[in-house]
Structure prediction request, 908 residues.
Amino acid sequence: MVSFFTNLINGLSLGSIYAIIAIGYTMVYGIARMLNFAHGDIIMIGAFVSYTAISSMGLPTPLGVIGAIVACTVLGVVIEKIAYKPLRKAASPLAVLITAIGVSYFLQNSALLIFGSDPKMYKSVVPFQNVQIGPFLIPGTTIVSIAVSIILVAALQAFINNTKPGQAMLACSQDRDAASLMGISVNGTITLTFAIGSAMAAIAGVLLCSAYPSLSPTTGAMPGIKAFVAAVFGGIGSIPGAMIGGLVLGVIEILGRAYISSQLSDAIVFSVLIIVLLFKPTGLFGKVIQEKV
Amino acid sequence: MSLLEVNSLSIQFGGLRAVDEFDLTIEKGELYGLIGPNGAGKTTVFNLLTGEYQPTEGIIKLDGQNITGMRTAEINKAGIARTFQNIRLFKQLSVLDNVKVGLHNQYHYSTATSILRLPKYYEVEKQMNGRAMELLHVFNLDENAETTLASNLPYGQQRKLEIARAMATNPKLLLLDEPAAGMNPNETQELMDTIKFIRKNFNMTVLLIEHDMKLVAGICEKLTVLNFGRTLAQGETKTVLQNPEVIKAYLGE
Amino acid sequence: MKKYLTTQDAASRNDFMTYGMVLAAFIIVQILSATGLLNSQMKGLLVPLCIYSIMAISLNLVVGILGELSIGHAGFMCVGAFAAAFFSKCTDGAMPDILRFIIAIIIGGIVAGIFGFLIGIPVLRLNGDYLAIVTLAFGEIIKNVINVLYIGRDANGFHISASSANNLGLDAATGEIIVNGPQGITGTPKDSTFLIAMIVLIICLVVVLNLIHSRDGRAIMAIRDNHIAAESVGIHLTKYKLTAFTISAVIAGFAGALYAHNLASLIATPARFGYNMSIMFLVFVVLGGIGSTRGAIIAAVILTLIPEVLRFLANYRMLIYSIVLIVIMLINWSQRSRAWMEQHKLGRFIYKKKSKAKEGGA
Prediction:
């Protein structure tokens, strides 16, 4: 029983990291209407920046984390301005998708050139190790991941509901043209969305590598895909959906690995997604869009 | 036996009863109009008749056959074709191909035949081309039909192409959803002549939704007026258009 | 911007241009090879270029003609590859090599087609982005499952295990492991030649181009352009979506079979048959002009050659490649750049034909 709960907590920990990534994906999709395939690699960049700051340059940990967040935020905004914005009105939505793939290749190969392909040992940013709660020994990273994800989601919801830029984001996600007619700067809102999403990716990268200390240029790819799956699973465009999707996915992955087969854990996760989508074709919280005939 | 018999047709979206106990009888060869203020439920009725929506109550019979609950493609095969309020052409296909798609169920050859280019492919394609050009000729769209992209046609011609495509499916009943929308008086007159031509030469029965009263009064023999999803008035065109309730619904008090 | 179409005769002529292009490429390569101008690096690329071209044709059928985003097509290639390799390993020596190879290719196609059909049934009901994610999911599942598959054969017949080679319970004397979990299949006969690959490519081309210019093809494109209108003229959506998807899977299976017989060892890793490969095919299709079969082939060839040509850049190779990709996308697709090009009558950078002849709207 204890081991089940341990697995469950681990699942929630991994899931909360997926949730943070998934929220970034879903925000960008909801507001900029694109699937940012480079999102997973921003995570990796965040981890590398903090690694460089903390392990290579010996800066204090908080500075390293903040550095990562700032770097990724800037990076996300720059990428949006250079590579995505010009294609916003392209004839096909696939154009910006392919460009995102190009950006992803670019980020991975840049990291490869700078850091090499052998995995780096990431020093966890969580200052405390395991915490004993009752019969359970819970890793520090677990507590921090779950706590951070809850705080981030709450902050994001508060931001969207209570501030003007936040409401602008909501408006853009529902009807971009109407929003711009109301005087909302769509460009500014989309930039803000990418900024927030990238910042969250940086945090996710730091947490991910604190929990799973091996860091290489391809570290962000699989979590990126899984978070994408989580976002769709929860209903693409829905922030609560991304949160729940991420948590559920993390739990399924860890439980699947523990109780069914560790080699098939990916197949299990993806299979669950498919089954859910068969019953709820727009995800758990996704809106069913009735096409007007 | 009437061509179209609709009894107590209703659909509910959550708390909103968009169409409420709608009755309609159309005889073969009639030109029937469905009118009413915006939002009255006219297109919803069309969507119910063509299977885009499933009714919550009611029965639809086409030529004696109960088509209630059938899917759109099946209803088309049973004999109802339609055009759409917002033109829905196959934009990346040619004018000719748009009509050939309409001929899809009138001419058959298997996938294997297409891939292996057996003789039947060439025979049937030739027949389809012939029939498609015939139809396009009726609507004056046959010039450069093979090389013109449907999306390059001027608006009025796009509307006519949509009708041509619907006609290609060899229907018993043709539903036209605001066919004159966006047309100038000349085009509207041309459209009226075309509809009458279709009725005469193709033995067609037509049910149309329109706001252009000149067209309605000009070609419709009978009308049903819809308001808030319910039938307000029904009958001979002249009588209905003089009904004070109908005038009030459109113009207010 | 007005686009003009060709007549049906000219559409056929357009197809012939595609065939001509492929045949010309074949002839040029043969000449270069005979005169010794092809170095071994290039020679090694010939079969992969055909394989990737076939995959581009396959994915273009789903993405460009049917209009659905699939990012798991490498999964079909994987299934075809393993099925074909399995057959070859089992029947090696039992019949003339060339016959065995041809049957292997056909089996690869059929098995992939079956997977395509079965996967298509639930998947094609979903819309847009959800469909894309499910194709991605299936691709990963296929890769994952094959990695834990152990199949062996001994005097008693076939044995399957999902955990380890030892669990196969093979007779020590006559036992032979065919599919070895993460190590996949080793020792597949290296039958793929440029000639055979070309022949398969042309066959796939004929299948797809003939399909496009036919009643079925029009139905499929109608679904792409306006599925509500397509239904309203009596077209059965699921049937035609499945047709396109299944044929596409069969073609991917052929490509997989060729791929399997071009390598000494066949394994499914994230680099091979995973998401990365599926994405690469998608890039071919989009860059080639979504919906253009000829463009897809050209893009497949160019984008496969660029990293090879850039080998002199050593470590910077893939970085430059990624920048080239982004730049091409921006030039070809951004509104500002399009307007500039129209002003200067430049047409599109890679796929120039778009403003003149399009293959039947495709």
Q: What stands out?
A: Residues 1-79+171-253 of chain B form a domain with the Rossmann fold fold (CATH 3.40.50.300). The first helix of chain B runs from residue 42 to 49. Chain B touches chain A through four residues (CB under 8 Å).
